[in-house]
Write a structure and sequence with these properties.
heterodimer; A: about 75% helix; B: about 240 residues; alpha/beta; six-stranded mixed β-sheet; about 25% strand
């Protein structure tokens, strides 16, 4: 099976490269490749020749950290790895290693190979991705040159591989916890029990350490955490986590092999755990049949009816609103309870960070924390929301065959696809701004009420325009370069894909500036004319002028994109395997 | 003429998929479009549905040019592809409702109810596509096509994934729509189906139309033996005998 897996991996990689090379005949892909190569050259190979840039000598390895700091970094890395392992148990998303492609399901599950061999096959197939990522990281690591890059790449590769295999083993163990066989359940509980014991030991020690001390700042926190993680029982239980976290820096030590040995040992144990859990592959991979059929039936909770969204689409009205309804329905149903498992810890981290920032700036009141968190959330959602929320043409290009049969003008389709994500991001940001403004009185007592609320209203008015402009730019790039758009979870790789992403990023930024400039000029003129008369209240009319101009531009762009949308060739869209 | 294709040519890069195709389908006609794999059938149907633009030539639906008057043309046609493209998070009922809204179907509720019964989708109205079998998803696509009064129906392998009862019902549905006055173009490799339900057959090979007529006319032109079925005629016409 190993030979067959290697054959599949080799042929797939070879043919992928061949397809990539063939598509360079198209100018846009060729330009993408040139930009990608140029970026690589300028950021990696030409970097050392620039004046003022100093790199290690020939064969310089990963940065050699001062002994005290290295010890602390490894300990903190171990703590991070422990936290990551816990998150893996909390999440319920399927491991990528167990995400068999349609072809693998059709051809390999019916082949006379064991599930353990299938796992080995998946590990082999995943190596290209892990190796590619490791090499990239090593290439971009600034102070590393020559053979040091190889050593760093090996270390990073071990970390990625261990994390990938660990997550797959966690997925299988979760399924095995549902088993009716007591012995299977017991074995599945062992790694979880180890993790919980480690967590208990570490948390207890951290609480003890921080109970009687006054923390002066982040540096102090680092010192105390290092002290906890590098001594006594926490050191013992964190050893496997720290061993893996240390792997990328092993090249800095005198003996690379002995530096990597602990991480390789952990990798071997995790791999053995994964292979020993192979009887749950069917349950997790969703194949059914075989000895795990019962487990799968119990584990798979397919809803018998879709969740009600409480909004029935009226049979009459503008077609854009039908797509607005579609987007809302898809988002409500697509957001599972699992998302909360990620969102809640994320919120905790944000609140923690904000509290630290507030503490540093002297604003200790809870109201200040709320105000700043909400302000940050609003800013992040306005600036990054359109990038993250892809429930527009970037997703629906995979349904282009259906969309193009609908009796709608192209501009209506584009606006309809954008409508829901624009509304959602704008409403979310506005709610965050209002909350921030409500608590801003306590947080910033020295700022006048009028100033604070003028700013809040201005952001609420200008935010949707800025969000619309960004969605317009993203949809414009999807229409003009459909071959470059990543559909769903698909991720194109390769030098030309990297070049494409760089071009797209630059295009989005330039287009956004071009979109905003006329509105910003109009807003600026209003500011200059009225600021002396009405003070900071001028922010509101300036924002209104900005919004009106940007929204008109968005409307015009959606109309202008019509002919390009009509010309999109369904065959130009790259679909995943 | 509900469907009029005139000198339609479509290329993919340097590959010529359809070469100077001209066909017409009248009201009440059920025309079978058959040919070997890669003959250009799906490209033709996709162009007729407005998904692909012709490289050259003209396609009109009920007199409306698909290039210059696309919305009016698309309002009159329903395309049922071989691969069911459904939205992951919309239920069966919501797919029908969305279609009804986009095509401004006047009496949606009774139509949807009748179609759900006709296509044996009862009890699946609240199901998401992921919960349905391939055959059921195919039926949803067909239901979306039939929920409106389209004067032109385009079927690409309509029986894929259907069970024997579904196949029988689908045959009856297509024939009933044809009798109701719709112009129907059916692409299928099931030659006995085409022979049974189609009033006329168009055979394509390597992007070109190589034969067009009733089964009897094709047999006569191909100098096939008396009593030859469509399969024998097809093999003779395409030179694969």
């Amino acid at each position: 099976m190993i030979g067959a897996s290697a054959y599949i991996a080799w042929c797939s990689a070879k043919n992928r490269v061949r397809v990539r090379l063939r598509r360079l005949r198209e100018p846009r892909y060729l330009i993408g490749a040139i930009v990608g190569v140029a970026y690589f050259y300028l950021t990696i190979f030409a970097r050392g020749r620039r004046p003022g840039v100093r790199v290690n000598g020939r064969g310089g390895g990963p940065p050699a950290l001062p002994p005290q700091f290295a010890l602390g970094a490894a300990a903190i890395g171990g703590l991070g790895a422990l936290a990551l392992s816990l998150l893996m148990w909390l999440g319920t998303a399927k491991s990528g290693l167990l995400d068999f492609s349609e072809a693998e399901r059709e051809m390999l599950f019916s082949a006379p190979v064991s599930r353990r061999q299938l796992l080995v096959h998946r590990i082999i197939r995943s190596q290209f991705g892990s190796l590619f990522a490791s090499v990239l990281i090593a290439l971009f690591a600034t102070p590393v040159t020559g053979s040091g890059r190889i050593r760093l790449a090996i270390g990073v590769w071990i970390v990625l591989l261990t994390a990938r295999i660990y997550y797959a083993a966690v997925s299988l163990s979760r399924a095995r916890l549902q088993s009716r066989a007591a012995s299977t359940r017991l074995l599945a509980r062992l790694p979880l029990a180890f993790l919980l014991v480690a967590l208990l030991v570490v948390v207890t020690s951290i609480v003890r350490e921080f109970r009687d001390v006054v923390v002066a700042g982040p540096g102090d926190v680092f010192v105390h955490l290092t002290r906890v993680a590098s001594a006594g029982m926490p050191r013992v239980v964190l050893w496997p986590f720290a061993a893996v976290a240390r792997a990328p820096f092993a090249g800095a030590s005198a003996d690379v092999v002995s530096g990597l040995l602990p991480a390789l040992l952990v990798l071997a144990v995790v791999t053995a755990w994964l292979l020993a859990s192979s009887d749950a592959v069917d349950a997790v991979a969703g194949q059914g049949g075989g000895p795990q059929e019962k487990i799968e039936k119990r584990a798979a909770k397919v809803p018998q009816a879709a969740r009600s969204v409480g909004w029935t689409l009226p049979l009459h009205g503008r077609p854009e609103l039908a797509l607005f309804w579609k987007g809302a329905t898809e988002m409500v149903r697509g957001t599972s309870a699992n998302a909360l498992r990620i969102a809640i810890p994320l919120l905790v981290v944000i609140v923690g960070m904000t509290s630290a920032m507030m503490g540093a700036s002297g604003m200790r009141q809870p109201a200040g924390v709320v105000s700043l968190v909400c302000g940050l959330l609003a800013g992040v959602s306005i600036l990054f929301g359109p990038q993250m929320m892809r429930t527009d043409l970037r997703t629906d290009l995979q349904h282009l065959e259906l969309l193009k049969t609908w009796p709608m003008r192209a501009a209506e389709v584009i606006r309809g696809e954008m409508a829901w994500p624009v509304a959602f991001v704008s409403l979310f940001a506005s709610a965050a701004i209002v909350t921030s403004a409500l608590f801003s009185g306590t947080a910033l007592p020295n700022q006048p009420f009028v100033d604070r609320w003028s700013l809040a209203i201005a952001v609420i008015v200008a935010g949707p325009a800025l969000v619309s402009a960004q969605f317009a730019v993203h949809n414009m790039t999807a229409i003009l370069f459909p071959g470059w758009v990543q559909l769903g979870s698909q991720r194109t790789r390769g030098i030309d894909a990297m070049g494409q992403r760089l071009i797209m990023l630059a295009a989005v930024l330039v287009s956004l500036i071009a979109f905003s400039l006329p509105g910003a000029i109009a807003g600026g003129v209003i500011w200059l004319a009225l600021h002396r008369l009405i003070g900071n209240v001028v922010l509101v009319p300036a924002a209104v002028a900005f919004s009106v101009i940007v929204l008109v531009e968005v409307l015009l762009v959606t109309e202008l994109l019509g002919p390009a949308y009509e010309k999109i060739d369904v065959t130009s869209i790259e679909r995943p395997e | 003429m509900p469907i009029a294709v005139s000198h339609f040519t479509r290329t993919y890069g340097s590959f010529l998929a359809v070469d100077d195709l001209s066909i017409e389908v009248g009201a009440g006609e059920i025309v079978g479009l058959i040919g070997p794999n890669g003959a250009g059938k799906t490209t033709t149907l996709r162009a007729l549905a407005g998904i692909l633009l012709p490289t050259s030539g003209q396609i009109t639906v009920d007199g409306h040019d698909l290039a210059s008057d696309a919305i009016a043309a698309k309002k009159r046609l329903a395309f049922m592809p071989d691969e069911p493209h459904l939205f992951e998070y919309l239920t069966v009922e919501e797919h029908l409702r969305l279609t009804a809204r986009l095509y401004a179907v006047p009496d949606f509720e009774p139509r949807a109810k009748a179609l759900i019964e006709e296509l044996e989708l009862a009890g699946k109205e609240k199901s998401l596509p992921g919960e349905l079998s391939r055959g059921m998803r195919q039926k949803v696509v067909i239901a979306c096509g039939l929920v409106r009064d389209a004067s032109v129906l385009l079927f690409d392998e309509p029986l894929t994934g259907l069970d024997p009862i579904g196949i029988r019902k689908m045959r009856q549905t297509i024939v009933a729509r044809g009798r109701g006055g719709a112009a129907i173009l059916v692409s299928s490799h099931l030659l006995h189906l085409v022979e049974e339900i189609c009033t006329r057959v168009v055979i394509m090979d390597r992007g070109k139309k190589v034969a067009d007529g009733t089964v009897a006319e094709l047999a006569s032109r191909a100098e096939a033996a008396a009593g030859s079925n469509l399969e024998q005629i097809f093999l003779k016409v395409t030179g694969r005998e």
